[in-house]
Structure prediction request, 300 residues.
Amino acid sequence: MTLQSDRADAADAADAADAADAADAAGGAGRVDAAGIADRVDAAEPTGVAGVVDAADRSCPADAAEVADRVRGVLQSADSDAGWAVGGPEGLHAGSADDGTLHDVGGLIPVLAVWPVIGSLVAEEALRLHTPLTAYGEGAAADTPVGTTAHHLLSHSTGPAAHTALTRLAEHLTGSPLAELAATRIWHPLGMTGTRFADGTLHAPLADLVRFLSHLLSPADHPLTRAWITESLRIRTGELTPARGLLWHPAPHGTWSYGETPTVWVSPRLHRWAAFLPARPPGPLRQAFREAAFASTPLP
Prediction:
């Protein structure tokens, strides 16, 4: 697992500007500056996932058939067995056939389990993003450099070591294992009853990914707060490269992505999300899928 997701695209200046615009559109109360001055996320205004956006920038389920046709056209010969879904805050717009199969989504553990659990702890004020981990006890800061904060781990660090440190922190603060924390705090409240750890990885049906991603764009403030989602889907690394939010990576079309195989995207600007579960190594197919899912003209 890595935090690499559309990194090459994000490095392009035009794409970075696109992502920054999406982050601006995701404004709302509780904004923290790029240097990360504030230690907690204040409550956001209850105006939707990312504050108020122009009606002209909203995507609509009316174009779902067009999106579905584009995606099927991309996958038909390249990976016809891939699982996929595209939707919005109200749920699924289009997707592959879903028979309840549990997919290996181990590559999404950080975004499906670690990131939301950390967000729930921030909302409870049990964790402050810019407080050194040493303030929470020796067990919370084990194997991390002096001065490391949760914000560092979410925005600047890469690789399994950062995910392990965040998991250790959450488990230290609560006294419960990550699997239990994610299930009780996030998955069960969202109705993700099929998502579970087994055989050393995470498994989930496509329907559960639909529930999770729809929540990220919905006006609901539970189990993940609007403030946490808004603050995560904006640039938190200042001028450092590659640009990142909190775990998420900016990508073209105002999207934020995580993962390589599989991958999920969220676009507050378009009010659209997508999930891609390839049946074979995706290579450039991941970018082709993203273009098919998001590179459309929003309805006026």
In short: Residues 7-294 form a domain with the Beta-lactamase fold (CATH 3.40.710.10). Residues 1-60 have pLDDT under 50 and may be disordered. DSSP finds ten helices and nine strands in the chain. The two ends are 39 Å apart (CA to CA).
